[in-house]
Structure formats: structure tokens, C-alpha cells
């Protein structure tokens, strides 16, 4: 049997390729999976819901109580109601549903480079054409001049990711306003991926939830609550298109996971305290991995302002995939920058969602490997 051309044209994720290389004794800094325990209230709420028989189909858009709770949780960004919120089976499926709902064959979608690995494939699966735009070097925010130069009559959507995976970059206020102005002037819609909004360390998060006339926003609970295996996300959008997205979700999954929704609902009242502690943990790890990387000759990183990824550059004359494979052979799993688009070349991505012991062990391998390669 032959798979469709659209699927056959899409490569396997570079993140997964590196994960598959991991030996049992490898230091794995390749996956963005928090090692923290979820809030106890989330586990209790999920277990209680399952024990009470709440294991059936639910509303396609999610249970009303959680939609209301999420709208209230994000009320600091905008005046939201349950009608603005749809619960989804992961942030990834939310992104897929949005592209399927809005992109027609031939539409162009501007995607960040370096940027998360699924933006371009999702565009292609919808029949669209992904067009990579640059992020500025160092702080990794969208390059407005480059974006402006790429907009054509076919441009339908621009994808924004802040805080960014893989770079840890966070939108500053000026860039945020410039993107809104661009959307106003051109009519291009904004797809804003904000799943790491809970992890901003040195600035504030500028959410597009306050501009739902121009944007559709994706967020989620997997990273926020350290429940990546639950696969729970959300879409925040204007009420005029919510019914269309609900229709799209019905044809994807019928309804999201019922017990997990009750777990999330039960944990919302304690999330402020939980996230304050989590930010303190990840900020300390950010500082550690930044210090260790900048102590290695030939490597450089500006401290990432959000998420839990480090995206340093290196001065070796080799492609990032080759370097990542050498590191994997030496026992350190990371992701080559080229996995995140053409402008990611010359970088590596490390996740500091792992503990300090693993970070230090990984940086020891990195330092030794880079030193050996520079002496050759």
C-alpha cells in the first residue's frame, strides 16, 4: 500500500530520531518533558472522576466547568468566557485542527525558523505552503522586516510561538505590537502557540488572547502541570469561529479525555503556587546550563527568557545533525538545530526540564566532545 503524497513528503521529527538513538545509559536532554511531579490535586481529581464512572463520551468542546475555569484562569490576559475556550486532546492536535480549519490548498503560512517541528508539516497536511521567517539571533524574536518581505497575496496565516520552542525566546512588547499592526494592515491571521506561557523568567508574557479578532491562540496543560502523557490542550478563539473549530474537533476525536479534564479542573485553584515553585526550579536550571555552555570554548548562548530550552550556537565547521550524532555516540542526547528549520543550523537544542545532576553530566560530555573536536 502506498501512503498519500502529502504524508510521504513529511520527514519524521528530528526530536524523535534523536530519542531513538538514546542508549540505556545516555544523558537525555532531548525531550521537553518536565521531571516535576504533577499537582496532587490533578491526580486526585482524575482518579476520582474515573472511579465515579466519568469515563464516557463528553461534550466535543470539553466539559463546561473546565471551559469556565480555564476562561477565568486566563482572565488576566483578556475578558474571556467559556464560549472562547475549547479543550483539545493535546496542544499538538489543537495546532493541527486550526490549520485544517483555516488553510486551503495553496495558502501560504509563515512559520518561525528556528521553530517547533510540527508547524510546517501541519501546513502541508492541510495543502498549504509553509514559508520560513527568521528569528533574530541571540534573543530569538520574530524579524519583522523579514516577515514583511515574505507576505504575498497568498499569505493566510502567521505562526507565532512565545515562549519559543526550541529557542526559549520571548516576545518583547515592541515586536508584539508590530505583529498586531502587520495583521491589521494585511488581514493575515495570527496562530499563536503559547503553551509555555507559564514559564517566563525575565520579562512578561504578551498574549494574543486579548486580540481574538486577529488571532487564534493555543495553550495547554501538558507542560504547565507536568502531565505530558495526558495529552490535554486548549484553543482560545473568538466566538464567531468557535462552532467551526468544534466541528473540526468532532471529526478528529469526538471529545477530549473525560477523567483528565476533571483532574485539571480540580488542580486549577492550586496552580499559582505550583507554578511559582516550578518557575524557581527551571530558572535555576536555566542559569546552570547557560553558565556551563558559555564556559565551553566555541559555544555561546544568551540566557533564554522562557520555556525550558537552551539553543546555543557553536563555531565548529560541521552540520548540527553530525554534531548531535557524535554527542549521541558519546552518551548525550540533544536535538540538532536543523530539525527546527533552515535558520536553526549551527545550533543545538538542549532541554533543561531534567534535573541539575543530568544537566551537569550532559554538559561534561558536551565540553569534552567540543574540546576534542576543536583539537582535531
What does this structure look like?
With 376 residues, the protein is of the alpha/beta class. It folds into two domains: 5-37 and 272-370, Aspartate Aminotransferase, domain 1, CATH 3.90.1150.10; 51-270, Aspartate Aminotransferase, domain 2. Helix content is 40%, strand content 14%. The strands form four sheets. A seven-stranded mixed beta sheet has the order 2-8-7-6-5-3-4, sandwiched between helices. It has a three-stranded antiparallel beta sheet with strand order 10-14-13. A two-stranded parallel sheet has the order 1-12. Helix 6 (119-125) links the parallel strand 3 and strand 4 (129-134). 49% of the residues are buried. The mean pLDDT is 93.
State the helix count.
13
Give the name of the CATH superfamily of the largest domain.
Type I PLP-dependent aspartate aminotransferase-like (Major domain)
Strand content range: 5-15%
CATH topology of the largest domain: Aspartate Aminotransferase, domain 2
Name the structural class.
alpha/beta
Please give the number of β-strands. 14
- In CATH, the architecture of the largest domain is 3-Layer(aba) Sandwich
Q: Regarding CATH, which class of the largest domain?
A: Alpha Beta
Total domain units: 2
Binned, the helix content reads: 40-55%
Order of neighbouring strands in the sheet with most strands: 2-8-7-6-5-3-4
Give the N-to-C terminal Cα separation: 48 Å
Query: Mind telling me the C-alpha Rg?
Result: 20 Å
Q: Regions with pLDDT < 50 over 5+ consecutive residues?
A: none
C-alpha geometry: globular
- The whole-number mean of residue pLDDT values reads 93
Order of helices and strands: HHEHHEHEHEHEHEEEHHHEEEHEEEH
Task: Specify the biggest β-sheet.
Answer: 7 strands, mixed
Amino acid at each position: 500500500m502506498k501512503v498519500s503524497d502529502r504524508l510521504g513528503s513529511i520527514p519524521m521529527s528530528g526530536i524523535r530520531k534523536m530519542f531513538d538513538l538514546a542508549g540505556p545509559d545516555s544523558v537525555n536532554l532531548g525531550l521537553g518533558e518536565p521531571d516535576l511531579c504533577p499537582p496532587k490535586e490533578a491526580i486526585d481529581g482524575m482518579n476520582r472522576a474515573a472511579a465515579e464512572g466519568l469515563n464516557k463520551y463528553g461534550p466535543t468542546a470539553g466539559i463546561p466547568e473546565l471551559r469556565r475555569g480555564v476562561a477565568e484562569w486566563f482572565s488576566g490576559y483578556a475578558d474571556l468566557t467559556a464560549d472562547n475556550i475549547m479543550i483539545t486532546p493535546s496542544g499538538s492536535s489543537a495546532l493541527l485542527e486550526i490549520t485544517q480549519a483555516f488553510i486551503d490548498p495553496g495558502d501560504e503560512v509563515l512559520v518561525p525558523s528556528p521553530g517547533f517541528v510540527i508547524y510546517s508539516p501541519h501546513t502541508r497536511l492541510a495543502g498549504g505552503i509553509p514559508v520560513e521567517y527568521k528569528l533574530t539571533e541571540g534573543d530569538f524574536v520574530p524579524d519583522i522586516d523579514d516577515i514583511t518581505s515574505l507576505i504575498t497575496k497568498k499569505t493566510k496565516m502567521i505562526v507565532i510561538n512565545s515562549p519559543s520552542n526550541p529557542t526559549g525566546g520571548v516576545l518583547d512588547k515592541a515586536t508584539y505590537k508590530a505583529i498586531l499592526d502587520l495583521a491589521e494592515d494585511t488581514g493575515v491571521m495570527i496562530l499563536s502557540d503559547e503553551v509555555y506561557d507559564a514559564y517566563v523568567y525575565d520579562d512578561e508574557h504578551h498574549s494574543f488572547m486579548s486580540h481574538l479578532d486577529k488571532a487564534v491562540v493555543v495553550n495547554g496543560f501538558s507542560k504547565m502541570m507536568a502531565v505530558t502523557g495526558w495529552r490535554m490542550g486548549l484553543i482560545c478563539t473568538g466566538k464567531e469561529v468557535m462552532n467551526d473549530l468544534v466541528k473540526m474537533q468532532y471529526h478528529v476525536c469526538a471529545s477530549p479525555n473525560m477523567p483528565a479534564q476533571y483532574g485539571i479542573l480540580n488542580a486549577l485553584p492550586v496552580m499559582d503556587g505550583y507554578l511559582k515553585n516550578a518557575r524557581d526550579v527551571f530558572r535555576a536550571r536555566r542559569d546552570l546550563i547557560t553558565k556551563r555552555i558559555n564556559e565551553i570554548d566555541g559555544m555561546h548562548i544568551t540566557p533564554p527568557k522562557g520555556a525550558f530550552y537552551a539553543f546555543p550556537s557553536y563555531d565548529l565547521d560541521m552540520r548540527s545533525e553530525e554534531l548531535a550524532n557524535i554527542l549521541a555516540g558519546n552518551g548525550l542526547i540533544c536535538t540538532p538545530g536543523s530539525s527546527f528549520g533552515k535558520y536553526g543550523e549551527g545550533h543545538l537544542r538542549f532541554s533543561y526540564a531534567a534535573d541539575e545532576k543530568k544537566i551537569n553530566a550532559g554538559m561534561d560530555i558536551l565540553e569534552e566532545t567540543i574540546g576534542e573536536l576543536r583539537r582535531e
